[in-house]
Amino acid sequence: MTIFHKVSVSGNLKYLQDTQMIGAFLGASMHIIYIILFLVYKINVLLWFNIFFSIPVFIIAFILSYKGRLKIPPVIGTIEVAVHQMLGVLLIGQETGFHILLFCLIPIGILFQKWKVSFFINSLIAFLLFLSVVWFDSGQFIMYVLPAAKLTLMRVINSLGLFTIVGLILFYYISLNKELYNQIQETNEKLNEINNELNGTIEVLNIQKDKIESQHTILSEQNKSITDSLNYASRIQSALLPQKEILEKTLPDHFILFLPKEIVSGDFFWVSQVDQKAVFCIADCTGHGVPGAFMSLLGIAFLDEIVNRRKVLTPNQILNDLKTEVIKALKQKGKREEQKDGMDIALCIYDKKSGQVEFAGAYTPLYLISDGDIKEFIADKMPISYFFDIPQSFHSKTFKVKEGDIVYIFSDGYADQFGGPNRTKYKSGPLKEYLQTIHNMPMSEQKILLEKNFDVWKGNQEQTDDVILMGVRF
Questions:
Q1: Which end of the chain has fewer CB within 10 Å, C or N?
Q2: Looking at domain 242-473, which CATH architecture does it have?
């Protein structure tokens, strides 16, 4: 009979179908255990809920998955888990651990066909329901009071349910990637063959050693030519950065600590004034050296277009437009194999008339020191490049400043520098403390002290990344 015939699906959906069927079977089995438990403990509301709702839901989910209809099972499964766990925690109490099982919604989100959206939605639902229980449930709805031993047993059963769901998702991913694993194994075998060939080639190369040494002089000359070209490129990059006269006119009391790792830099700073508003920023492009320098040239050109030509004067919109231009220029589509080039940035607009500062950042925070106290303004956790499939906007943060207040914006190069007695990263905490220590000094002296502190920490270690740190006193 066709009603008992399994509808097979193709490709990766085959693993999804099998996982949904196993999940529905395990869900039904788990709820049979619940029925027995609620029957013994005389928890009638949840007993009838499991008999007339939960078990039918998982039976329907199994049948739909069996027949190849994969869209509905995770939806009704999500609803059942959310309602069941909320009823459990409200009617029996948080000691049962039912509210922890709400996090089963997160792995269930992966069982949708369009899992990127559903994973986000299910995660949001799980956290909102969990927080609502933690914040607002004080036991006012409890109908069934159980002794400690029974609560412990119920908590253990719920924990097993959570582990079962996680195990199921692991099964799905292992199955999904099994073919990829086989391909990797084949590739490894080919690489071993290539390695054997290379070992033979090494012997030939050893014979040619004398010839290579004779070419050393030629290579040295070529290296000098490349270095000269990089030095010329560095002069071009420096010419595109804001010049001293513009900096002093726009930001009279400031310093910029700029320490490229190589001849050209992937970090850059940019300053402009439009009417009574001073726009200033620092940015950290992907990589350093020549690749980072190319990105910095794009960033400078795009900022000039957005601010000076289009007259966009809200920080979050500037970053949104900059992100759009970078994605367009690099032809980013979000494909797995493409380069994730982009930049992190901190951008401020200071209204000299109102004394107000607006800030927006991409992974790059801002420190404000006012009356000796330091406050950190957190940036958005996304870069100036392609970021998932969901369009997201940057956010501006506004604050007032008065005479003597200082803001600091910087790339991660300073805090990420390895050094010190244990060759560890400097980190942002010590940087914040050091800035608070020296903030009363003239800006020019702060720059000197920061550079000296950096050199002492680095010692004989190689510089990790480009470094840029800007301080502005109002």
A1: N
A2: 4-Layer Sandwich (3.60)
